[in-house]
Amino acid sequence: MKTVFLSSLALFFALTTIQVNAQVQEHTHDKNNYVVLTKKVDQLKPILLTAEALALEDGERFGDFQVIVCGQDISQLTDADKMKDFVAQAEKAGVHLVACGFSLNKFKVDRKEIPQEMEIVENGILHDFQLQKKGYYSLGL
Hints:
Layout: H1 2-28, E1 32-38, H2 44-58, E2 62-69, H3 80-93, E3 95-100, H4 101-106, E4 119-121, H5 124-133, E5 137-140
Parallel strand pairs: 1-2, 1-5, 2-3, 3-4
Keywords: Signal
Protein name: Sulfur reduction protein DsrE
InterPro entries: DsrEFH-like
């Protein structure tokens, strides 16, 4: 009796796990979503070029692409001349630029000086992990 109960319980968990895994795979493989966490604003150019190349390669499967800027270089986001081309290229490529609020606070950067096109999240590292949990391909630079 004990063996039948344990076997039934094991079969139940196995079937439940297979069903959940199938649903996760189905959800995360519709589109290829990407997130890059960078500490260097100057890396935006090669990151944006990579996004453009992936968009061509993925075609209809290209999904969301986010670039999160964290760290000491975050103050460079207030340089309007420097950011103008990055913002334009990101918009054209469908890339979402994100600033880490924790870094903005730590390095005393005025949020009003961040380009309006950029989203500000309170914790860039947490945001990155949350996207990874949703199945995003992730790269930290």
